[in-house]
Design a protein that fits this description.
The complex is a heterodimer of chains A (297) and B (485). Chain A contains 11 helices and 7 strands. Chain A has helices at 2-32, 36-46, 58-63, 66-73, 88-99, 138-147, 150-155, 165-169, 206-221, 243-251, 280-293; strands at residues 52-55, 77-79, 106-110, 225-230, 255-258, 272-274, 277-278. In chain A, the strands form 2 sheets. A 5-stranded parallel sheet of chain A has the order 2-1-3-4-5, with helices on both faces. In chain A, strands 6-7 form a two-stranded antiparallel ribbon. In chain A, strand 6 and strand 7 form a beta hairpin. The radius of gyration of chain B is 24 Å and the shape is globular. Chain B has helices spanning 6-21, 26-45, 49-71, 75-112, 130-145, 155-163, 176-183, 191-223, 231-262, 280-284, 289-306, 312-330, 334-353, 372-393, 397-409, 419-441, 451-454, 457-472. In chain B, helix 8 (191-223) crosses helix 16. The chains are: A alpha/beta (297), B mainly alpha (485).
């Protein structure tokens, strides 16, 4: 028994040594990476100090051109969104991390149904993308706990970068052009064959609603101007999908700029890359239009 | 409760602690093990735990009867009881697994000839592990009848053999003789067993979480949306699928064998590097070995003896039936039926040329590597297996046909290449291929370590494997492919 315990102890020591040393290397590579996922998460959580931040899912990542907003608003802007249908669990953790460093002037938040509905394809696990920032803020840790990744992240540094090694090793060759300030344009035109509108037949998730409320109150406590926005889709749902955020914005006296059914875009295949994402031309056109409506006080 | 989950880890730690506290009282150990096995099964399929218990008791009683009849030289009674036990085993399988399929197929066939039947399927839920434990049950009564074992007098030991929690869900399908023999001895706390078992569990986890689950991201992305993918993507995903299956099922078997070893049991091996084979017969002798050997002993051999008057044709007929059973064992669909037939057909040239009865050894060069003609044959055999698994992967025949039809139409599209997923899988696959090559052709050669490190080989390997699993693994994946069978 003593011999076995000794073996286990040696394994634990070796594991600790390998895990921490490899973890340090991975942390460095992560902060240097230019690959989309890693760059977006690391820059928005740990580096950006811009006045206006854009939050949201992949639609935000591809639709909001910071340079256009900067020209119109006279403020520095950064597109802090990431792909992978990120939802309020991720956004709340991200906001908490950012607030440990500085307070932005405004947040433009493109709200998505997965921020308040019980969408099976996007749940708590999305906060797991914040694993490399475990310990950075209470909010981030709380979201990691909900995603089930907090304790593994505390036990192992390597686990925080699980599955990222190839991206990190080739990070310098990554596809993000840093001069675009977080915007990721998409080149191409939508193929309209067989398209159907996306519907959201899911119930309201009270936990997500409570988090959205906390997101709003955190912004208010820090005097951050929060604006809800919605960019266009090629095909729109038959339901009034955005009634909930409209009510929420009214309740908290927030602006909600809804372009979901904007006729300048809906049905214009030449402005879309796929049914839910604008292409470069569409994103520039939409950003110009929105920047004229956006009032940052 | 999946074997590679945190819940299982806690469960197993508690089981192991209490289990070894019970040593050397083997009967107490066995009772505790049985309680744990039923509790484990109930966590997964609580409704069917009763069925498992009833079938176990029924087969134990039938085995008891067969054994007594043999002792009293009542051959007819023994034969009748054995036939009854096989009928009960196959009946349970048929009822839960195949009845809906046959009703559906019959109604569809009747519709084709203009008869409109209003029969509805029963929508039965297949008990988890049914195909595995019914085979164990049947092998028990058949082995008693054939004089290979004596009847088990202790019903608890027999129940332990059937419900043994590391193997009940997906095998290996252990034979009664070696397992029951181990139950008669007290399992003592042996650190070496624990250490070797733990290494096998880790290796299985690596295969499952770092290779199978990573490859599944790519393969499923292509196969589940094949209508939107190019021919090159479909072919590439199809080529990856056999390797994914191997890592998934062999990974599970490694974990099951490792967990059993940690409890002091040696269970049968299930895989022996199946892609280092040059024909389909060799492949099946190394892939899911416990199923193949079960069907060889209880289906192929008796059939071959019955049909021996037909010569080679009789053997071919026996093989075709045997392979059809292998196919259908996997599931109730015509794809599995064709999967079996397809593999059976590949046996015919081997039979005709006489290669089936020869043991062809792979030639190696002076460095110990297989020669190029044999490498080519291995590649060819992999392609044969790949095509068969395309059938296996398809949800139905029409999907398989659609995929085949898409191949010549979609040559213009580009290859879907999910770099991070494939790169992660590739790094880990290299490790698996390296280990397999070493075990196959250089079994005596071990990875060189400096003298000081050699002393800590086990510790180093375990620490590296844990870090590798954390770095490359997928932790929120789906179940094992073979759980559905």
């Amino acid at each position: 028994m003593k011999k076995l315990l000794l073996h286990i102890l040696i394994v634990a020591c070796l594991f600790f040594l390998f895990d921490r040393s490899l973890g340090l290397g991975l942390k460095f590579l992560y902060s240097q990476s230019n690959a989309t996922d890693e760059y977006k998460i690391s820059y928005s959580n740990a580096t950006t100090r811009d006045s206006v931040l854009f939050f949201g899912s992949s639609r935000t990542l591809h639709h909001y051109v910071p340079s256009i907003f900067e020209k119109e608003l006279g403020l520095s802007c950064y597109n802090a969104a990431d792909w992978g249908i990120k939802n309020i669990y991720y956004h709340y953790g991200q906001l908490s991390n950012i607030l440990t460093r500085y307070t932005p002037k405004a947040i433009v938040f493109e709200i998505h149904p997965c921020d308040w509905l019980e969408t099976p394809f996007s749940g708590k696990e999305r906060a797991g993308a914040l694993a490399p920032y475990c310990g950075m803020s209470d909010g981030c840790d709380e979201m990691l706990k909900l995603s089930g990744k907090y304790w593994p992240c505390l036990l192992s540094t390597v686990y925080r970068y699980s599955g990222s090694l190839p991206n990190l090793l080739t990070g310098k060759l990554g596809a993000m052009d840093r001069s675009l300030k977080g915007w990721k344009p998409m080149d191409g035109i939508l193929d309209t064959t067989g398209l159907v509108a996306e519907e959201y037949p899911f119930p309201v998730d009270q936990e997500r609603v409570a988090l959205l409320e906390r997101f709003i109150s955190t912004c208010q406590q820090h005097h951050i101007q929060l604006v809800f926005v919605e960019s266009p889709m090629y095909l729109c749902s038959a339901q009034d999908v955005f009634q909930f955020p409209r009510d929420l914005a009214a309740k908290h006296n927030l602006t909600f700029l809804d372009h979901y059914r904007d006729s300048d875009f809906v049905g214009h295949a030449e402005l879309f890359y796929d049914f839910g994402h604008l292409n470069r031309k569409g994103a520039e056109l939409y950003s110009r239009k929105l920047s004229k409506e956006l009032r940052i006080e | 409760m999946v074997v590679n989950s945190l819940t299982f880890l806690w469960f197993f730690l508690v089981v192991m602690a209490v289990y070894y506290l019970c040593q050397p009282k083997k009967q107490v150990q066995n009772i505790f093990l049985l309680v744990c096995s039923y509790w484990f099964y109930a966590q997964i399929d609580v409704k069917m735990t009763g069925l498992l218990g009833v079938l176990t008791l029924a087969f134990w009683l039938m085995g008891h009867g067969i054994g007594k009849a043999i002792e009293k030289e009542k051959e007819r009674q023994a034969s009748l009881l054995t036939t009854l036990s096989v009928a009960v085993g196959i009946g349970a399988l048929f009822y839960f697994k195949y009845l809906d399929f046959f009703i559906g197929s019959f109604v569809a066939a009747a519709n084709l000839i203009g008869l409109h039947l209003s029969w509805t399927t029963l929508h039965l839920v297949v008990p988890v592990g049914l195909s595995f434990f019914t085979f164990k049950l049947m092998s028990y009564t058949l082995d008693i009848y054939h004089g290979k074992i004596e009847r088990e007098r202790n019903v608890l030991d027999f129940a332990n053999y059937i419900a043994f929690f590391p193997t009940i869900l997906s095998g290996p399908i252990d034979r009664p003789k070696p397992f029951l023999k181990q139950l008669k001895q007290s399992r003592l706390f042996i650190p070496d067993n624990l250490m070797s078992g733990f290494r096998r569990v880790l290796w299985g986890m690596f295969m499952k979480m770092c290779i199978a689950d990573r490859l599944d991201l790519y393969v499923s992305a292509v196969w589940n949306n094949y209508e939107h993918h190019s021919a090159s993507s479909i072919l590439f995903a199809s080529l990856l699928y056999p390797f994914q299956m191997y890592a998934d099922f062999s990974g599970y078997s490694e974990m099951a064998i490792g967990v059993a070893l940690m409890l002091g049991f040696k269970v049968a091996e299930n895989f022996k590097r199946p892609f280092f084979t040059i024909n389909i017969a060799q492949y099946w002798s190394r892939w899911h070995m416990t199923l193949t050997s079960w069907l060889t002993d209880y289906v192929f051999m008796p059939l071959n003896i019955k049909l021996r008057d037909w010569g080679t044709n009789g053997t071919i007929a026996a093989i075709m039936l045997n392979m059809t059973f292998i196919g259908m064992w996997h599931g109730a669909d015509w794809t599995f039926f064709l999967f079996g037939i397809y593999h059976g057909l590949w046996y015919i040239p081997l039979m005709v040329s006489g290669q089936f009865f020869k043991k062809t050894k792979i030639k190696v060069n002076s460095h110990g590597w297989p020669t190029s003609p044999f490498v080519m044959k291995m590649v060819g055999n992999y392609l044969v297996v790949t095509f068969g698994l395309m059938l296996f992967h398809s949800n139905n025949i029409s999907e398989f046909w659609d995929v085949l039809c898409r191949l010549p139409q979609a040559w213009n599209g580009s290859l879907f290449f999910d770099m991070p997923t494939l790169a992660n899988a590739a790094i880990c696959s290299i490790a698996l291929i390296y280990v397999d090559i070493q075990e196959e052709w250089f079994p005596k050669k071990r990875l060189y370590l400096p003298t000081w490190a050699e002393r800590w080989r086990w510790e180093l390997t375990v620490a590296v494997e844990i870090v590798a699993i954390l770095l490359f693994g997928i932790f929120d994946s789906n179940q094992f492919i073979y759980f559905q069978f």
